[in-house]
Every structure is written in C-alpha cells, then in structure tokens.
Amino acid sequence: xxxxxxxxxxxxxxxxxxxxxxxxxxxxxxxxxxxxxxxxxxxxxxxxxxxxxxxxxxxxxxxxxxxxxxxxxxxxxxxxxxxxxxxxxxxxxxxxxxxxxxxxxxxxxxxxxxxxxxxxxxxxxxxxxxxxxxxxxxxxxxxxxxxxxxxxxxxxxxxxxxxxxxxxxxxxxxxxxxxxxxxxxxxxxxxxxxxxxxxxxxxxxxxxxxxxxxxxxxxxxxxxxxxxxxxxxxxxxxxxxxxxxxxxxxx
Length: 251
Description:
The protein is built from seven helices and 14 strands. By secondary structure, the chain is α/β, with parallel strands linked by helices. The strands form two sheets. It has a seven-stranded mixed beta sheet with strand order 6-5-4-3-2-1-14. Strand 12, helix 7 and strand 13 (239-240) form a beta-alpha-beta unit. Helix 3 (71-80) crosses helix 4 (95-106). The protein is globular, with a radius of gyration of 17 Å. The N and C termini lie close together (6 Å). The relative contact order is 0.16.
C-alpha cells in the first residue's frame, strides 16, 4: 500500500543549468506538500500538474533564493487559475512578513489580492506541528543561515527532507529514524562548510539501525552529479540520486 508519492520537481543546486532548484512535492492521502520553491520550481510543477488547488501546504526549509524565489509566480498563478481553498505556508519566525514582502517586491500590491486565504504558520525546532493526521517536526542543520529540516510522520510512515546544511546530531537522528529521506549532498568527498557531504551521510547511514529504506541524495554541486551517482551505487547502501521530475511511490 502506498503511503505517499514523491515527485522531485528539482534536484540541483542554485546555479545548475542542467537541473532545477531542489524541491519535492509529496502527495499523501489527505494533504499535498511542496517543500521549498526556488526560482526554477513553478514551471517544473506546472509541467507535472497545473491544478491551482494541488498544494495544501508549502514548507520553506530556509530563506535562500533557490528555495523561495519561485513563490511569487506560484501564488500569482494560483490566483489567476482560480484557487478556491486556503493555503498554509510554514517557515521560521517571520515567515508571514517575509512572504508578503517577497510577493509585493516581485508583483507590487498582489499579496492582498490573491483571492484565497493564506495561513502563515511559524515553526521551530522546539515544537511539533500537527496537520490533520500528520505530525511535523523540525531539525536544525548547520548552514549559512538557519535551516530546519522537516520530518513528516503518520502511522508507520515517515519522511525526512533536509533542506541545506551540514548534518547535526539533531538532523542525523531525524534522518536515521525515518522510513525515507531526501538528503542534500553537495560534495562527494572532502569537507564543505555549511553543506552535507557524501562521507558524512554514509557514516550516519552505516551506523543507523534500522536505516531508511531509501535515501535520495539531492543538491549536488553542478560538477559532481556523475561522481555522486557512482559513489551511491558503490556504497552498498540504499541510496539513489534522483533526476528532475522523477516520481516514487513510498510505502
């Protein structure tokens, strides 16, 4: 039985001309989630499904451009296409003001004219959020600015989505305890400040018991995708490097 379907709208880093900004659409039986919305994401989403009511919740892991600059276009097309139900946007402290300013900067005066209810919900690493049957928790990574990884859970199902940043004890524990994981992996070897690397991810997974059934590695440096695919295949661990617009059914 499928608990959720995940669509990789993008799998690339900010400046990758061959891949969209990293973003996933997760469809469960009751709620559709968009995690992050960078500047190349809306067009990818519309190629998959242009229904203005498709998304129930948008979660922003952090406020860097390749994770949020697609929001104004997405929201304005929802208006133009006649969205009829409320939309929740979850993010860190100040998310409502941030989204309002971003919308009005891109398309002046449109935030108050969207024509549907937008509910901004602030989240933190110290409090879980309930949405219907789902429990959402948030886990800090080590990034240039604050990034909170998401763990979505209901029943026996759980999915971890890292956003950007080096693994921390908190995010490592959330990754290891999840049935599936979408994990940023910027570099195949060496250390990259403020980004996760393959050796660190491999070490966490090797010491996890149980470990995620599958870990999807995303956001590689634009010069390292092929090397990452080779490293994942040779690791002996259930790791995959997905491509843009690939879909997976998760049980």
